[in-house]
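To make the argument concrete, we let one protein speak, a sequence paired with a row of structure tokens, as a model reads it:
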Amino acid sequence: MASTAASNYERLSANAKTILKADSSGLTRSEKHSLLGAAFLASVAAWNSYVVTLVPCIYTALSEPVQLRYSHVLSLLEAESEQKLRKFNTPNAENTRTLFMGVVGYDPWSDWSCARRGLSALAARQRLNEILQVRHSLAHGSSMPSYTWNQSTGGDTRLTLHAVEWTGSFLSHLVM
């Protein structure tokens, strides 16, 4: 059974898929890029939601109400994690790892490889960080950083349908 965090991720990531289904035949190139940007942002927002929702899910799964001492210690840790979650705002590889290590002692990096896409754990972390940099540029209206996956052969930096779909699939892989 999927965690509440994973179920929430699936529900939210469906928004990106809905945006991509919009009929863009009558739209200008700029308007089509806006739709791709919105879908990209929706995918990353779903990832962010997953990260912050997962921590309380873990504490719920660990709870043992009959074990009073254990429950007391767990409630102290949970209160500390709530403080860390309030300060958490960018779900890049380093921040997500720091959060998970600090609140539940879990290092996700070794689990983030994506062999079927040819990404080692290190390459997956790098791609996650690139995705968050692109998200930042879209959200704040700054120029988009250029990476191999968002640069055309002509040198233009932009999102493509393939890059947006790939990103959604990649983030889903990290969640699962």
In short: The mean pLDDT is 90. DSSP finds six helices and no strands in the chain.
